[in-house]
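Input/output pair, single chain:
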Amino acid sequence: MRILEIHACDDWLSCPLDSLDAIHAAHVAFRKNSAWQEVVPGLDSIAVQFDPVRITPEQATDLFREQMLAPFNGAMEKPQPIIIPVCYEDSFSPDRDWIAEKLGLTVEALIEWHSNLEFTVTMLGFMPGFAYLQCTEAVSDIGRLATPRQKVDAGSIGLIGDQSCIYSFTSPGGWPIIGRTPLKLFDIGKHPPALLSANQTVSFQPISKTEFDTLAAEHVK
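Output:
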């Protein structure tokens, strides 16, 4: 029998898993169980939240262990791929030229290269709707900014190598920014409120500033 390393903290339980595929499959399976209030996939684990009024910590742990030991075969559901429009113009990409130089590319080649990559959403975190992405190809290390910015605009796309991110809200941040999308990553008025979900395939499509402004106006309505 597989030995589980279950961690408990107040009304949360978590357990490490050995692959992103297993984590994403567990995420789908756990979301189908109404006992869990929240199901959060991480880079190397899955976590669930339960309501102590409805279920005791001991009952929750037993149920969590039972689900963890059950095979996740057939539970995997791949979300529909999404193409994210992104404007790479310098007003939206403060680190574009630096990233291009770091990778030995011209700005034009950088845009073409980045918009032809495919990424997978590994998890949402840091803030609601904030997406962490993993590139399906090997990418040279770029690294984080030496000094984080106090303000990174919502929709900004960060790139540190084969890992990328999309900021769902304006916040401080230390990722080099290569562009910005006008799409809203999180809208409490929609169901689900997050635009992206774990295990979703993401690619990027270059747009002009005029197209950016048009799409941004549409998403304000």
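The helical segments are 20-31, 57-69, 96-103, 107-114, 209-220. The chain is about 25% helix and 30% strand.
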